[in-house]
Specification:
Chain lengths: 112, 114
């Protein structure tokens, strides 16, 4: 158990819909990262938040957004969903930027 | 740009065989290097890490040495077990403007037979 929690574990929705994925980092970790894992793209970095502020963006679509709240949990919002958004979405946290990241169990999103 | 190239799989071995999974990277600066493992149906777990040249990371019988001259971080284990069957990912954090982002290889599927 990494100490990072993600909910829900599975999510099935239809094209055009909007979903929210939630992540709670390890106790004391200020950094939260989001990654997408798909068969064709592999593991791709989406976005990094540190203590409530966005610090880096990767290959994140404009339809996707994230935020980190004062209690340090983070949410990834995916809107206008397309079939190609079906993937595993991982959240990770770290105590210091550049140090090892601890991953949650992931949320499997299926868009029908 | 930054990238990681991993040995293509799948890799199939018998129990107690020697394992090597090659990993080379392209990065600016002095990255920190990691190996993560993903067991079926689970998230990624950190297996080992190395933060500077010539460092050797080790854990659970796995080892990898940070070779700056060859930009490599090959994973080795002297005697694999059935329980080592998983997907292995090489990754690095380049620091600087990448600011914490991990860049991953495509993953190598390892299957160990009794």
């Amino acid at each position: 158990d990494s100490g990072v929690t993600q909910t829900p574990k599975h999510l099935i929705t239809a094209t055009g819909q909007r979903v929210t994925l939630r992540c709670s980092p390890r106790s004391g970790d200020l950094s939260v990262y989001w990654y997408q894992q798909s068969l064709d793209q592999g593991l791709q970095f989406l976005i990094h938040y540190y203590n409530g502020e966005e610090r880096a963006k990767g290959n994140i679509l404009e339809r996707f957004s994230a935020q980190q709240f004062p209690d340090l949990h983070s949410e990834l919002n995916l809107s206008s969903l397309e079939l190609g958004d079906s993937a595993l979405y991982f959240c990770a946290s770290s105590g210091r930027v550049g140090h090892e990241q601890f991953f949650g169990p992931g949320t499997r999103l299926t868009v029908l | 740009g930054d990238s990681v190239t991993q040995m293509e799989g799948p890799v199939t071995l018998s129990e107690e065989a020697f394992l090597t999974i090659n990993c080379t990277y392209t990065a600016t600066g002095y990255p920190s290097l990691f190996w993560y493992v993903q067991y079926p149906g689970e998230g990624l777990q950190l297996l080992l890490k190395a933060t500077k040249a010539d460092d050797k990371g080790s854990n659970k019988g796995f080892e990898a040495t940070y070779r700056k001259e060859t930009t490599s971080f090959h994973l080795e284990k002297g005697s694999v077990q059935v329980s080592d069957s998983a997907v292995y990912f090489c990754a690095f954090n380049a620091g600087g403007t990448s600011y914490g982002k991990l860049t991953f290889g495509q993953g190598t599927i390892l299957t160990v037979h009794p």
